[in-house]
Every structure is written in structure tokens, then in C-alpha cells.
Amino acid sequence: MYRTLENDFFREYIYMRFTRLLFAIIIGLGLFIRLNYITDQSRNNPLFYHPIMDAKIHTELALNFFEGHPLSKPPFFRAPLYP
């Protein structure tokens, strides 16, 4: 089979479609796994809707930021470099 410009374009087209399909499958599988995990946690974990300790602080900070109060707590209310 001779190599022609048409064959090169066709191969590139097939490669691009395969790459996009593979990317979509990987993203879709990752999304499915994450949604499945969140659904399972919301059903079986009593601390999902009532967080405690660090999770509670992070949730409160996020909700306050969402409501338009960016800094509800002073900086460094924890030890410096606290993860």
C-alpha cells in the first residue's frame, strides 16, 4: 500500500477520534467512581451530614465563603503549617 496524503489524514483522523474516545471513557469512569463513593458515603456514614473537628471547620469556612463572608475566622487560628 502506498503512502498518500489521504491515508495520512485518515490515520490522523482515526487516531484523534480514538484518543478523544479514550479520554472520554477515562473521565466518565472517574466521575462514575466518585459519584458512587459520595452516594455510598451519604447513605452509610453518619458523619457525612454532621461533620466534626477539622471537617466541620472546613465546611463552615466553605459555607461562609459561599455566602459572601470570605474571612470568618482570623488568620492563623490554628498552629502555623497545620495541614
Q: Largest beta sheet, briefly?
A: none
Low-confidence stretches: none
Q: How many distinct helices?
A: 2
- Share of helical residues: 55-70%
C-alpha geometry: elongated
Calculate Rg over CA atoms. Answer: 24 Å
By secondary-structure content and strand pairing, the structural class works out as mainly alpha
Strand content is under 5%
Alpha carbon gap, first and last residue: 61 Å
- Please count the beta strands (DSSP E, at least 2 residues each): 0
Mean pLDDT: 82
What sequence of helices (H) and strands (E) makes up the elements?
A: HH
Characteristic key phrases:
83 residues; 66% helix; 2 helices
Describe the structure.
- The chain has 2 helices and no strands.
- The longest helix is centred in the first third of the chain and has 40 residues.
- It is elongated.
- The termini are far apart.
Brief overview:
66% of the residues lie in helices and 0% in strands. The chain has 83 residues and is mainly alpha-helical. The chain is elongated and about 70 Å long.
SSE blueprint:
Blueprint: H1 5-44, H2 53-67
